[in-house]
Amino acid sequence: MVTIGHRSVVSTAQHARAGRGDTAYQAYAVLRTAFVVAPIVFGLDKFTNVLVQWDTYLAPVLSRPLPVTPHQAMYAVGVVEVVAGLVVAFHPRLGALVVAAWLGGIIVNLLLVPGFYDVALRDFGLLLAAVALQRLATHYDPRPTLWPLRRS
């Protein structure tokens, strides 16, 4: 373990050894995997609508002013979600914040659509899990949150 200022940071070698018996690392790995796979799968599905017809989840009050149809707007949403999943894969400390912010936006959107309050509540649980991933990533991902924008 390396100490930077008042914080201890796990070295790459310790990170590799952390897995098997470290329950906190196991939780981190589960959350990281979930927040890589789910956004990418759901983002790609915005282009195919195999899982669900995603347009129905877009609040009319938000879609009406757009210069595109709700279906076309879902393409942009899909791209954002795939990128968010990739950011979690390559930099979980930052990616978890991106996913949490994105989920916050989704929750606001869902609260504007009558009948989707249960989905908004589920997404609030996912937002809390993304925050937990970010907190765990501060221990297991030694890079600064804004890396590579700001190097320490």
TrEMBL record:
The chain crosses the membrane at residues 72-90, 97-117. The keyword Membrane applies. Keywords: Membrane, Transmembrane, Transmembrane helix. This is DoxX family membrane protein. It comes from Terrabacter carboxydivorans.
